[in-house]
Each structure stands twice: as structure tokens, then as C-alpha cells.
What we know:
This protein is mostly helical. Helix content is 73%, strand content 2%.
Amino acid sequence: MIAIVLGVLLSAAAQAAKAGSSPIGGTPVFGGQSLSVPMQIVFLLGALTLLPALIMSATPFLRITIVLHFLRQALGTQTAPSNQVLLGLSLFLTMLLMQPVATKVYDDAWKPYRDGQISMDDALVKSAPALRTYLLRFAREKDIALMLQLSKMPPPATSADVDLKVLLPAYVLSELKTGFQIGAVLFLPFLVIDLIVASVTLAVGMVQLPPVMLSAPFKILLFVLVDGWNLVVGSLMKSFG
Length: 241
């Protein structure tokens, strides 16, 4: 999370100083003139508006929320756990997984910039590799090739040359596929219970009673007996390596 925040703030500041230079510890320069404090605030607020989208799309938050949503649908509990609980759990797990990336960005980019050792542009350059390395671990080559084709960009010579504007949507597509695959696997044992309960109710002539009402307690009981939350969260975290 911190990595994403620092990266966005550094990116916004670098865009503000793009036409000029950024003296270390000074005010960003735009067009040879010092950028006023109100304009700095405008750029900062503009960067902050992108943070929710980045946190949801460029972190493990995407896969975790998809899998937990499928799990709740498979259990048939509708609103239990609530959306707030699932999002809170996803956020805390995301913070745990992104801690190494955040630490590297802080040590390589933010801390030297804060201490006045490097300029804002240098901090931006140093903050990108950590995020790029993480995204490359989970972005499929097929999705990256698709984004390169759509953007009409030449294939990069090495993985380090992949542009973030290509890598980010490729990562989102890859995580969507992975999340749906895990969700489909989670559905299978609960689907078997639904089929068994539906067959039994039809066999005894209980056509007026929805099978879902009878299968829900059995699915919850099975999930509790196998310690489902521990298994699902543990397997989900291990899927990120």
C-alpha cells in the first residue's frame, strides 16, 4: 500500500516538474518558475484520486476480493460476512503481501528523497523497479503481448523495459483470470452438496421447499468442520508465492 502511495505521489510531483528541474529540498519548477503551493496541493489531490483504483487493481487486493466474493456466493450466505468485513480482510492481507515492495520503495526512493539526497525525478525512477518486479511475477506473457499490440508499442528487449502503462492492465487481466479460476474450484464441493440435496428433496416429493434452504446449513457445517477460512486464506496467500 505504501509503495503505491509513494509511487503515485512521486509520479504527480514529477509531472509537475516535467518542464523544468526540481532542486533538492526546494519547490518544483514548472516552465522555469517556481510552482506555487496551491498548485502543488492541486497536483497532490489529483494524485490521491488515483489511489483507490491503484490499490484495487495493482495489488493482491484484486485477486483476494474476487476469491472471497466467490466463496460467499458458494456458501449461499448472501450477506454474511458483510462487504465491509470482506474488504477489510482483503485490505489487511494486501498490506501484508505488499510490505516487501513498500519497504524497498521506501528505502530506495522515498527515504533518500526525504533526506535531500536525490531529486524527485530520481526518486520516481528508483520507485518503479520494485513495483514492476512485483507486477511481472503475476502478469502473463499473453496479456502483456495483448497490451503491447493494443498500444502499438514494440516488444521490449528485457522485462525491465516493459512500460508500466502496459504492465498494469496486463496484470489486471491476469489477476482476473486467476481469481475466477480459484473461485470456480471453490464452487465445486458446494455444488456437489447442492446437487445431492436437490436430488433427495425431489425423490421424497418436497418440491415446495427450495433446495438452497436445506443445503445452506450443510455447506456451512462442512466449511466450519474443515476450518475453511484458514484453508482458503492460507492457500490464497501461498498463491502469491
